[in-house]
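Milestone M4 deliverable, item 7.
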Amino acid sequence: MVPTPPDGRAGIDAALVKRLVAAQFPRWSGLPVVPVEVDGWDNRTYRLGDSMTVRLPTAAGYVPAVDKENRWLPRLAPSLPVAVPTVLGRGVPGEGYPFPWSVRGWVPGETARRERVRDMSRFAVDLAEFLAALRRCDVTDGPVAGEHSFYRGAPPAHYDEETRRCLDALKGQVDTDRAAAVWEAALAAEWHGDPVWFHGDIASGNLLVADGRLTAVIDFGTAGVGDPACDLVIAWGMFAGEDREAFRRAVGQDDGTWARARGWALWKSLLVLSQTIDTDEDLAAVNRRVIDEVLADHDHFA
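Output delivered:
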């Protein structure tokens, strides 16, 4: 389960960022600080001038990602075919803020909503090529999948109890018999490959486009070394039909990896649906769709 940020999450604001920057990076103290248009949950992000951002974890559970990204993004970047964030400054706790934080270079582009993508099949292939390049990166001393990655890159069995609770809670709301079969298949498809780099949160909000093409991948907070199956969940979250098949062909993974990927997608969608079914009709509908498509995919390929 991803930890819930404390009530003080809203206390991270532009005024705090200004104080932190002035105290620790005085050369940038005169630059304007404004919230980004699309913010995340794990971190709050602010523009710093025209060419930088400030990124602050919202809770202690997200703190390990700061040092991890600071260390590994510069090492991974030269081997990747699109831009990733550059680390320009490393902040420490201060001004009442209890966690380490960072200053990054601004990565231009817009989040990859379908209407912003010129050719979804081409986009799917570009993303598959990014993932292939990431998997080829040297894993020496890389962070092995575990708590820091919220167990992305580890066996999906870590979330077995939670998934089964969600299945019980959603009886009568989704086809829980078919969903249980998908989950069992994911657990049975044990991974025996060599560890590789994975991103851990490949989703449209972490993919940037310009002129309709993939130009950057951001937010490596859940990245690590292990099983790459978790990076395939976008097959049902963003792709459909021909572009999903283009992604499947280009990404080049075996049946077992796809079975575990279906398990990862099912776990997350069951969890979110169970939490939003009575409170957020739109988000619930999105996760119902993902569940339906994962079940159909399992029926077709398993």
